[in-house]
Specification:
With 515 residues, this protein is an alpha+beta fold. The protein has three domains: 96 residues, no CATH class; 118 residues, Alpha Horseshoe (Serine Threonine Protein Phosphatase 5, Tetratricopeptide repeat); 229 residues, Sandwich (Jelly Rolls), CATH 2.60.120.620. The protein is 42% helix and 14% strand. A hairpin with a 4-residue loop joins strand 2 and strand 3. Helix 7 packs antiparallel against helix 8. The protein binds 2-oxoglutaric acid and fe (ii) ion (FE2).
Length: 515
């Protein structure tokens, strides 16, 4: 599934709302502080006046006391009144601030914890740069990548604690160390205690459970004895790719217990930009112009890059123009901050599902109709509403990711639309590509794609047995920097099956490779 964190639309709104709130706070701060001072002085003047006097003394006709009372009120009340009048003029600011929780959803500690976990995962997947962290900058993959927001000792500490809790033990120790290096003298003893405890947990888990499971990661050596251990891969795990894994690991225990971890480790390597395949496989991949046999596209063929031949995965460049992408993003934007309500989720309900904001979209807009026509010509498949599920726009949030999965419904889940059927092909178009991270990766193929705005990835999910092609399992890597917005189209099986040649071999892939 997807991890829970804030969408960029929410965060963008929060930046603007926060700016506004602070402007209102600035407007009230001075008058409120002045009123406080004036009232304090007035009360002190009164207390001095009545010091030693009892209420029954107030009737005594002491001229000095009468003089002081007159002077106290005459001089003091002018100031009190001035200050009160100024408060009256800022009452609308106070009203605005007081009604903020009714107007906008405010982040709470759960949101902070979720963001901490997202940052810890980023640090884990993309390898933490501890030097940069010590200087307060986060996770520099590419130091030239622009502005890096520095984190305070307290912020580093809170991320470190969440990281430890969530099983990113190595990352947790690194964050607490960074926090310590930026701590004030007052903070230092507490941080030292936490760091000692975290190192103890880290080393204990490493000793008992080893460096890696589905629920934890440690460094390859203990911190306690060596002191300066950091992220090292150790002995490179052997890669398990293609159908070979099935031959070698046919037993159910491996599939159940080892497969998820092998998959996760390979996903992470692919996320870091590795290609896990040998050269004799990658050297067969080509780039070319393709028309899909369409006379219409002969005038302007698409640039197509092969990512993998088996299963057949390609990238089609410039499927969507920049203008079209901008139009689509603008169109869905207002829907991308509405909270996900599973109960009322008919197919057109906007949704925020974990780190995604999702919006299902029918193809009635001019932009999507144009995109659909191009795909139809290139792929030779029917794509209208009766032949495929609605377009789905997803906007990844802070550290947003989508763990390894298959797109098909499979034998246990009936496809929602019987006239559309199983998801024969996936067309995943990047409307906006992240600047770092966020690749789409295929752990059992050993390949990944960085994503280019306007380009679409196309792959075929089914075998002729109608079973899912396991090798098409894929994941969306956590987004490191920038924003990732994609639109998915799932091509239905039912409207297309007559177009494809039959195969007696049940393991053959069902596809229409448009040579
Ligand atoms: O966004 C990606 O890279 C993958 C999205 C995906 O797998 C899906 O929509 O099913
Ligand atoms: Fe998918």
């Amino acid at each position: 599934g997807h991890a829970q964190h804030a969408s960029w639309t929410q965060l963008e709104e929060l930046w603007h709302a926060e700016y506004k709130a602070v402007e209102h706070i600035k407007a009230v701060m001075q008058p409120v502080a002045e009123l406080g001072d004036v009232l304090k002085t007035y009360v002190e003047s009164w207390e001095a006046l009545v010091d030693g006097l009892e209420p029954h003394d107030w009737g005594s006709e002491d001229p000095a006391a009468g003089f002081s009372l007159l002077r106290h009120v005459a001089e003091g009340w002018t100031r009190v009144d001035d200050a009160l009048q100024r408060i009256k003029s800022i009452l609308h600011n106070i009203e605005f601030l007081a009604s903020r929780p009714d107007r906008e959803p405010l982040p709470n500690t759960d949101d902070v914890a979720a963001a901490s976990e997202a940052v810890a995962r980023l640090a884990h997947v993309y390898r933490l740069n501890t030097t940069a962290l010590g200087e307060g900058g986060l996770l520099v993959l590419d130091p030239m990548a622009g502005y890096h927001h520095p984190l305070s000792a307290n912020e580093l500490m809170s991320i470190g604690l969440v990281a430890v809790k969530k099983g990113f033990l190595d990352v947790g120790v690194q964050f607490l160390r960074a926090a310590k290096s930026r701590a004030s003298i007052v903070q230092l003893p507490r941080l030292e205690n936490m760091l000692t405890a975290a190192v103890k947990v880290h080393d204990h888990v490493l000793e008992v459970n080893g460096p890696r499971s589905l629920v934890h990661v440690t460094a390859t050596a203990p911190y306690g004895s060596l002191g300066e251990t950091s992220h090292t891969e150790g002995v490179k795990a052997s890669v398990v790719l293609g159908v070979d894994y099935l031959k070698r690991h046919t037993n159910a225990t491996w599939m159940l217990e080892r497969r998820p971890l092998v998959e996760q480790v390979q996903v992470e390597r692919l996320c870091r930009g590795e290609d896990l395949r040998p050269p004799h496989v990658t050297s067969r991949l080509r780039c070319r112009y393709a028309t899909g046999g369409s006379p219409w596209l002969a005038l302007a063929p698409f640039k197509v890059e092969q990512v993998s031949l088996d299963p057949y995965i390609t990238v089609v460049y410039e499927l969507v123009s920049r203008g079209e992408a901008d139009q689509l993003k603008k169109r869905v934007k207002s829907h991308l901050h509405i909270p996900y309500t599973p109960s009322g989720s008919d197919s057109l309900t906007p949704a925020v599902e974990g780190s995604w904001s999702l919006k299902q979209y029918e193809a009635e807009t001019a932009v999507l109709m144009g995109v659909g026509r191009r795909m139809r010509h290139l792929l030779g498949v029917t794509l209208d509403n009766t032949a495929s599920e609605p377009y789905m726009v997803a906007d990844y949030g802070l550290g947003g990711e989508y763990s390894a999965h298959r797109d098909t419904h499979g034998p246990t889940r009936t496809p929602p639309h019987t006239h559309i059927g199983e998801r024969l092909a996936t067309v995943l178009t990047y409307l906006q590509a992240p600047t770092q991270g966020g690749r789409t990766v295929f752990p059992w193929v050993g390949a990944g794609v960085g994503g280019t705005a306007g380009a679409a990835m196309v792959w075929w999910n089914l075998l002729s047995s109608h079973e899912h092609d396991f090798l098409t399992r894929h994941a969306a890597c956590p987004v490191m920097r920038g924003r990732k917005t994609v639109v998915t189209k799932w091509v239905g099986y039912v409207p297309q099956w007559r177009k494809m040649s039959c195969s007696a071999d049940p393991s053959r892939k069902v596809m229409l490779p448009w040579h």
